[in-house]
Amino acid sequence: MPPASFAPSLEVSGLAYAYPDGHQALFGVDLSIERGERVALLGPNGAGKTTLVLHLNGILEAGAGSVAVAGLPVGKENLAEIRRKVGIVFQDPDDQLFMPTVREDVAFGPAAAGLRGAELAERVTEALERVGMAGFADRPPHHLSFGQRRRVAVATVLAMRPEILVLDEPSSNLDPASRRELADILRSLEVTVLMVTHDLPYALELCPRSVVLSGGVLVADGSTQELLCDEELMRGHRLELPFGFDPRSVSLPV
Amino acid sequence: MGAGHAHKLYRHGHSPVHALPPHCKIAAVFCFVLIVVSTPREAVWAFGLYAVLIAAVAGVARIPAGFLLKRLLIEVPFVAFAVLMPFVAEGPRVQVGWLSLSVSGLWGAWNILAKGTLGVAASVLLASTTELRELLLGLQRLRMPPLLVQIASFMIRYGDVITDEMRRMRIARLSRGFEARGVRHWGVLAKSAGALFIRSYERGERVHLAMVSRGYTGTMPVLSDAAAGRAQWTRAALLPLSALAVCLLGWTL
């Protein structure tokens, strides 16, 4: 573990935001994530999860409150640095993979940060190896399966060596095998992870800690298993477990 | 998923023509076409020589004649007009069998056909020896405005995605018992087109978001900076230079 004096990977305090049309999405969110933690951000549709995520790398500007990544405040003057530190994996890999080949796509982030030549090639290979896609570097993204595209999308972000990895619905549209492969990859990474999801068993499998966002505020923060077992909390915020799934019966991987 | 537009024109290979940097090839083809177009149409033999040059390049690139000829068919709708010219043009006429043809029309038709065919043949050769994204890289190195190159590369990337979306919308229409029959149904098709536009536009916004999140600031980072050496430029220049010699002969003889 890094020394305690290190700034947390993510520090959100009093974050509030209203869209230009007047709809207020966040009403003062406080969240702190230590280095190396894996945290699930749970919440019903329309709770403001995506809005919160877009604040983490400065795409949306906080109406009130502040966000800091590894001690660096998110603001206009250090946006480039923030975007390198916060790697967001969007829900649809077709939105994320916009270059003609996998290699170019993974290279995009580091190249935008100024890396060139051998150093860049090394970054790309390393990132692709970490998601098990090194053999696909020269393929066009639209020739890959959905699960492979999701993994490449993770690689595009890993190539920037982010401080924190933010995944938006990482398990959506994946078949069970791809789901498990992605889980194995995520567990093998030594990086702080914030995972936005409705997939409660997946959250339980991967994230020891969860927070629940509902109606623009954080209503719960604690161990994932305890939160999922809190029936009142779950019912109150439109969170439902899949049929036949009992979070108490799951023995968690340590 | 789409079968990959890139493979329809491109023919994979390892010939010296394939190995040339794309910007050299683009420049060579461009100059070749300019030279062909500026050759006097009366120098019929010159066009024969141009064809021989193209055939020679195809030979070096190991592109089979059949492959090249089949792709030349793309030209047909564009030269249909040329075929009409001998019948409709004015001026002195010549009797061929029972047809009376205009002399200037015949020359005009020949001019369009010969120059058009040579130009298309050169472009087909370029396309079959250069991958689509290499072409884009080449254009970028030839100082084509980066914005245009970016637009073109996004077209390549998202062409399939959008066709796919269109196909899904069509299936959804069919599944609900809709079949376009006649003018009364055009409204539905127009609305689908509108919906497709909105969806693509929104996808564009999401893609932009993803780009910004990875540090995009308006210019694409340069990923491969393989400048062409003198030897490569010389090799690429062989085609336009020999064509230039032919052209000059055509003007002087």
Overall 3D geometry of chain B?
A: flat
Q: Could you give the order of strands across the largest sheet of chain A?
A: 6-7-8-3-9-10
Number of helices of chain B: 11
Annotated CATH homologous superfamily of chain A: P-loop containing nucleotide triphosphate hydrolases
Strand content bin of chain A: 15-25%
Description:
- Chain B: This is Cobalt ABC transporter permease.
- Chain B: It is a multi-pass membrane protein.
- The complex is a heterodimer of chains A (254) and B (253).
- Chain A is an alpha/beta fold and 254 residues long.
- Chain A has one domain: 3-Layer(aba) Sandwich (Rossmann fold).
- Chain A is 35% helix and 24% strand.
- Chain A is built from 10 helices and 10 strands.
- In chain A, the strands form 2 sheets. Chain A has a 6-stranded mixed beta sheet with strand order 6-7-8-3-9-10, sandwiched between helices.
- In chain A, a hairpin with a 2-residue loop joins strand 4 and strand 5.
- The longest helix of chain A has 14 residues.
- Chain A is globular, with a radius of gyration of 18 Å.
- The mean pLDDT of chain A is 91.
- By secondary structure, chain B is mainly alpha-helical.
- Chain B folds into 2 domains: 156 residues, no CATH class; 69 residues.
- Chain B is built from 11 helices and 2 strands, in the order ααααααββααααα.
- Chain B has a two-stranded antiparallel ribbon.
- In chain B, helix 3 runs antiparallel to helix 7.
- Chain B is flat.
- Chains A and B meet through helix 2, strand 6, helix 3 and helix 4 of A and helix 8, helix 9 and helix 10 of B.
